[in-house]
Design brief:
Strands 1, 2, 3, 4, 5, 15, 16 and 17 form an eight-stranded mixed beta sheet that branches. This protein is 30% helix and 21% strand. It is built from 14 helices and 17 strands. Helix 4 (167-176) packs across helix 7 and helix 7 packs parallel to helix 8. The chain folds into two domains: 7-58 and 386-406 and 419-435, Urease, subunit C, domain 1 (Roll), CATH 2.30.40.10; 61-373, Alpha-Beta Barrel (TIM Barrel), CATH 3.20.20. The longest helix has 18 residues, at 218-235. The protein has helices at residues 80-89, 108-118, 137-141, 167-176, 188-201, 212-215, 218-235, 247-259, 270-274, 280-283, 296-308, 323-326, 343-354, 360-372; strands at residues 7-16, 19-27, 33-38, 49-52, 57-60, 62-67, 92-97, 125-128, 130-131, 151-154, 181-184, 239-241, 264-268, 313-314, 389-400, 419-429, 432-435. It is α/β, with parallel strands linked by helices. The radius of gyration is 21 Å and the shape is globular.
Length: 454
């Protein structure tokens, strides 16, 4: 759908491609960026919609390449409409949804059906992973690279029972995947052994939440990352390691990037950067996720990896569950936490805290995701690209994130009462205003993402 009018955004402070500069941006009727000039450099036509950004930041909309929107099959927790609305309220204009839904997205027909279902329902642009299993190599070989962002491989068990941990099956997946392979790296044998030790220590079954990072340990993650890197090197597979959570993994990533530049990339998530194991006794089930949030030193090493460039992307790993499902004893509480509407604010706040230049945030949350997943004409503010944009205000006084600001269907987040100095003022998706805090939500304008894997 095209807009009836062009939109001019003037007097914005653009964060884009390593620069921070005052600009005017003209969005054409086709929803693409028509011109980018210095502030005041574009005169609006009488029919244009003119917006004075008043010096607010403008950046490419975040591309969240790691979400669990629970649709289809788990829509009591979340659904396409509610979670994509939460996304745009936080400046996320595109997302890639994981395959552990019901049914699983492990064949190409299910993948196509997800795209059909999202059309007209999603407020943000959408893409869907094809999941790897022990027995679907034929589906992986037959995938359509223009609609498949990556193959998702669970090398350790998590929500959805999709783990592929047999060596023969892993060799098949790594050797036959023709596009990017994105991996969840944990070692089930170690986790099972650690779980058994915890059960022996707490025979009444009341395992404390602070044991989660010992059960799903750093060594469990690192051992799996090492295997993934070894297989990727053997088969020349493009490998993206998801949700790094510890220093041991970072050491391996550094070695791997030196050996295979351009073929190995890595993601972490806001919760591994903002939280550490010191908060388990306070937050308990609210911060149980897989991989586990680990120690303070791991948190500091991950923050440093943002400076060094070892970490390429930030994904929210937005994983909603109802409070009634989560607020249980450790062993029966599912893993996962929702956060998509706050991830951009959290990362901008973190950048200020650790001295990371603000222009690194669009690199981590838009440029690199678009480049690594080879997303067509998105992730940058460039003439001819789709106008997926977010306007963010730097607040003079910090504000607390509140329950009122939560838009995800499950209606909770571990970040309530976190203070922020940033506020999302407006989000545009394909040139259309998709979110403004003072306006009702418009109709969904999200489009299917396309990928240039060739």
């Amino acid at each position: 759908m095209s807009s009836e009018k062009r939109t001019l955004i003037d007097n914005a402070l653009l964060l884009n491609e390593g620069q921070e500069r005052e600009v005017a941006i003209l969005i054409g009727k086709d929803g693409r960026i028509e011109r980018v000039e210095s502030a005041g450099g574009i005169s609006p036509a009488p029919t244009d919609t003119a917006i004075d950004a008043q010096g607010d930041y403008l950046m490419p909309g975040a591309i969240d390449t790691h979400v669990h929107f629970r649709d289809p099959g788990l829509t009591h927790k979340a659904d396409m409409a509610t979670e994509s609305a939460a996304a745009v309220s936080g400046g996320v204009t595109s997302f890639l949804d994981m395959p552990n839904t019901k049914p699983l997205t492990t064949n190409n027909q299910a993948l196509r059906e997800k795209y059909q279902y999202a059309n007209g329902r999603s407020y943000a642009n959408y893409g869907f992973y094809l999941g790897a299993t022990r027995r679907n190599i034929e589906e992986i070989e037959a995938l359509d690279p223009t609609i498949t962002p990556a193959v998702k491989l669970f090398m350790g068990s998590s929500t959805g029972d999709m783990a592929v941990d047999q060596l023969e099956a892993l060799h098949s997946v790594f050797s036959q995947t023709p596009i990017l392979l994105a991996t969840h790296c944990e070692t089930d044998d170690l986790i099972r052994a650690n779980t058994q030790l915890a059960k022996q220590a707490y025979p009444d079954g009341d395992i404390p939440y602070h044991l989660h990072p010992q059960i799903r340990s750093a060594h469990s993650c690192a051992q799996s990352v090492s295997l993934a890197m070894e297989l990727a090197q053997q088969y020349n597979t493009r490998l993206h390691i998801l949700h790094l959570s510890c220093a041991e993994e970072l050491d391996l990533i550094a070695q791997g990037k030196e050996k295979r530049p351009g073929y190995l990339t890595a993601e972490t998530c806001p919760h591994y950067l903002h939280l550490s194991s010191t908060s388990y006794d306070q937050l308990r089930w609210r911060m149980k996720c897989n991989p586990a949030i680990k120690g303070r030193m791991d948190q500091l090493h991950l923050q440093e990896a943002l400076h060094s460039g070892l970490i390429d992307t930030i994904g929210s790993d937005h994983a909603p569950h109802l409070i009634s499902e989560k607020d249980r004893p450790y062993a029966s509480a599912p893993s996962g936490m929702p956060s998509i509407e706050f991830s951009l604010q959290l990362m901008l706040d973190l950048a200020d805290t650790i001295g990371l230049p603000r222009h690194h945030i669009p690199r981590l949350m838009a440029h690199n995701p678009a480049t690594i997943y080879r997303i067509h004409l998105r992730g940058y503010v460039r003439e001819g690209y789709y106008a997926d944009l977010v306007r963010v205000r730097h607040l003079q006084e910090p504000q607390s994130l509140t329950q009122k600001g939560i838009r995800t269907k499950c209606a909770w987040t571990p970040y309530v009462n976190h203070t922020t100095r940033y506020s999302v003022i407006a989000t545009w998706v394909n040139g259309h205003l998709a979110y403004s805090p003072d306006s009702p939500m418009p109709s969904p304008q999200g489009k299917a993402l396309r990928f240039n894997h060739a």
